[in-house]
Design brief:
The structure is a homodimer of 392-residue chains. Chain A has 392 residues and is of the alpha/beta class. Chain A folds into two domains: 21-267, Aspartate Aminotransferase, domain 2 (3-Layer(aba) Sandwich); 271-391, Aspartate Aminotransferase, domain 1. The first copy, chain A, contains 14 helices and 14 strands. The first copy, chain A, has helices at residues 22-28, 38-55, 69-80, 94-105, 123-132, 154-163, 183-186, 212-219, 232-239, 253-269, 271-291, 318-329, 356-372, 382-391; strands at 11-12, 61-65, 86-91, 109-114, 136-142, 144-145, 150-151, 167-171, 190-192, 206-210, 307-311, 331-332, 334-335, 344-348. Chain A is globular, with a radius of gyration of 21 Å. At the A-B interface, helix 1, helix 2, helix 3, helix 4 and helix 10 of A face helix 1, helix 2, helix 3, helix 4 and helix 10 of B.
Amino acid sequence: MSSSFYPARRILMGPGPSDVSPRVLGAMARPTIGHLDPQFVDLMDQIKALLQYAFRTDNALTLPVSAPGSAGMEACFVNLVRPGDTVIVCQNGVFGGRMKENVERCGATAVMVEDPWGQTVSVEKVEQALAENGDASVLAFVHAETSTGAFSDAAALCRLATSHNVLSIVDTVTSLGGIELDVDAWGADAVYSGTQKCLSCVPGLSPVTFSERAVARIRERDSKVQSWFLDMQLVMGYWGENSKRAYHHTAPVNTLYALHEALLILKEEGLENAWRRHRLHHTALVAGLEAMGLGLVVAPEWRLPQLNSVSVPAGVDEALVRSRLLQDYGLEIGAGLGALAGKVWRVGLMGHAANRQNVVLCLGALEQTLSSMQAPIERDRALAAALAVYDD
Amino acid sequence: MSSSFYPARRILMGPGPSDVSPRVLGAMARPTIGHLDPQFVDLMDQIKALLQYAFRTDNALTLPVSAPGSAGMEACFVNLVRPGDTVIVCQNGVFGGRMKENVERCGATAVMVEDPWGQTVSVEKVEQALAENGDASVLAFVHAETSTGAFSDAAALCRLATSHNVLSIVDTVTSLGGIELDVDAWGADAVYSGTQKCLSCVPGLSPVTFSERAVARIRERDSKVQSWFLDMQLVMGYWGENSKRAYHHTAPVNTLYALHEALLILKEEGLENAWRRHRLHHTALVAGLEAMGLGLVVAPEWRLPQLNSVSVPAGVDEALVRSRLLQDYGLEIGAGLGALAGKVWRVGLMGHAANRQNVVLCLGALEQTLSSMQAPIERDRALAAALAVYDD
């Protein structure tokens, strides 16, 4: 208890947090200033503009919620879902289930559209659910399921929502900065994300953005939002137009320094370049894994480059593998969650961690560790297969 | 938008955030590791033990909520207050009003016990309210009102709650680490605080602690807590006994490094020494202010040493004074809030910022600034009066 904490050297290739750039860590360590300081208010404006860039939106109500992604999810639900509403919730992994919890805790009814874990959300089933539930007011789905590594067709799902005159709530925790995400082109209404995935920022904030339709729904509510902390009508007073900036809560000043720097890095690289980089290193990683004889859970067309669910070979103690990777290589990969617990490893290539060194390290460390446990894998092939991708 | 953010040099003597120690900033900048990493789980145990020390409690359910103090407040209310409950809420400043908002958003009824802003909560009125409201299930009050600088008799109020068999919810955002706070001796049931006041940590976390009575109330609820993110039954699965550590949300890893370091510093100094230090510098500051002819809003027996509400002299543009202090001296002091807006400055002496340099700087800067505006103050007396306190 009595000494300062010095973390061991880790390479973070799990489902997040991902490796954080020294630039971001350095920014966060700059001296704290007041949350109403004019200089800080300027920084807030810059963060808002950078988030609009990352989300590809002109939405005025775009800001980081002062808490992790789960709170960003809750911010979307408690503001848009009223007691008695019907909400169509798509579930193909853990986070759809968490959406259902949110709906029910708002006093609303969740109509579930379920797909197997690891598959994409079925657009047809959603269309049917919308047709069968004319009273639905919201459609909620996960763009990039962190628990499985599958993405869904957000453009098509948002289009369905708009054409049925319901609002869409979209979880982009793992997609922001990693794959194509286009809030305005999709016509998405309430979108939340996290900082510790493809933005390679520290965990603790949840970027959100609300369309004008969503803001109108919030303004016309006749019941108060059940959360004071997440009530966007109040939060807008602090994050809204420059002139007001009324105190609501004390912003997490230093974590916002970190987010600003992480977003700058993204903008310097360019959003499309970042997407391409994730795709490239994913392709190399998968080539190596497949050459080793390891399979992926998700079908190629719906694979998230930034989150790879790898099937654990029969007879292998998956927890022991993770623990050896951590101990021998300082390498963190993730365990399976929910229906995939014990069956997969989740290998992240998120943000700053999506690089060639990490791909090579991960393949080498996995091959050595599995070999030492007599797992049924192909040896001495993975590295060449991965490197061939880079040579293309 | 296109360049890194470098904050100006500030001395933070407002209502928080307070000056953060370089040790804390340095800790926060260490590389991020996973929120389920065994090394991080050890750190969580250390943080819990250090928070128990700071709160003076053996409560097992003691942890930092992953969001600012307002979320800690909400965590206490949504877990302990059920729809239809009656809650007695004491208000003598801004934060009692926020408690009322929380109660009502839980679908419960708030019975208000009001005292003038700047005064202590009347124990007699609370006793009467408890006697008149036999169906009340919770008594909520603010120990240290950040909006006014008055503290209340938490021991007596918690005793009343216990004797009437209601749970107490206590706001200690500004008191933790600054004045006597004794959760177990008081028999307080749910207590929340913030990190950016007398702990001199960055903003963004809210330490909370729940008594066994409070935990029993949570466990026996027959309705779900309306917030998924703040549901203590779920949060316990992550922060609870070492063996489980089930994923709930991604903890704000680096901010927790910072909290750990800030709590270590508090423990190294010793809680009672920290209280004495706040008292000493407050006494010096007040001696200087009074020698200058400036009065304090709160009666001496209820003054918080860490938050001094100073009456703005007649005819002085209080916002201009704050803006000059910021510009000419890098010195931040706070504006009045709510009923005291425009009438007071709030001068903080919180945590690391409670030191002799800050007292001298604040007095000198205020005297020069007010003199330059022809304000009716006594000159050339404040510094000697303050220093005499240190010489005693």
